[in-house]
Amino acid sequence: MNDNLDHQNISFRPIRLSDAHDILNIVNYYISETTFHFSDEPIEISAVYDLIMKETNLPRYVIQSEEKIIGFGYAYDFRPENTFSETVKLTYWLKSTCTGKGIGSKFYHILENELSLLGIKNILVNISSKNLVSLNFHKKLGYVECGNFKGIAHKKGTYFDIIWLQKTLQEMTK
């Protein structure tokens, strides 16, 4: 893949079942090579199929460059109770060779606009304290730290924090 990605060739489309292997490869890279993904064992293709086939009205997209999948992201319910129906969690992974090129900002803009139209008011993300690039990326986009679970994660011989960030999309009514 060309490291000089042409932004005019970047596209976003809903996730399809045929994307499962590309998604699996992206996730399993972060599982095996970093402390950024919290799993310590590679996931199986069946887990990706389950994610794709789960019915939801929340956005789930792949990111493509010249028809090749370079990332994906999706929103999902923060908790199952109706009390939290206006709050979602967001997961986003981009191939490591494609980060720092403005693709994530463009992707988040699309996701946040769509979530806002769905009546979502709050987006939560949780990030490894070792993933400084992601923490800075989210803060640049207006996410603010709302929780820090110190030293609760252990992977690859190191302990690290899980940091929660929040972005409010719409003013809440009282």
Q: What are the secondary-structure elements, in order, as H or E?
A: EHHEEEHEHEE
Helix-and-strand structural type: alpha+beta
What are the segments in which pLDDT stays under 50 over at least 5 consecutive residues?
Answer: none
Q: Bin the helical content.
A: 25-40%
At the fold tier of CATH, the topology name is Aminopeptidase
Helical stretch tally? 4
SS strand fraction? 25-35%
Give Rg in angstroms.
Answer: 16 Å
CATH A-level architecture: 3-Layer(aba) Sandwich
Count of β-strands: 7
> What strand line-up does the widest sheet have?
1-2-3-4-5-7-6
At the first level of CATH, the class is Alpha Beta
Form type: globular
Characterize the biggest β-sheet.
Answer: 7 strands, mixed
Tally of distinct domains = 1
The average pLDDT value, as a whole number, equals 92
Let me know the CATH homologous superfamily.
Gcn5-related N-acetyltransferase (GNAT)
**What is the terminal-to-terminal distance?**
49 Å
Protein name: N-acetyltransferase family protein
Domain N-acetyltransferase: 10-170
GO molecular function, one term: acyltransferase activity, transferring groups other than amino-acyl groups
Keywords: Acyltransferase, Transferase
Write the layout of secondary structure elements.
Layout: E1 10-14, H1 20-33, H2 45-53, E2 60-65, E3 68-77, E4 87-94, H3 103-117, E5 122-128, H4 132-140, E6 144-155, E7 158-168
Parallel strand pairs: 4-5
Antiparallel strand pairs: 1-2, 2-3, 3-4, 5-7, 6-7
Helix pairs in contact: 1-2
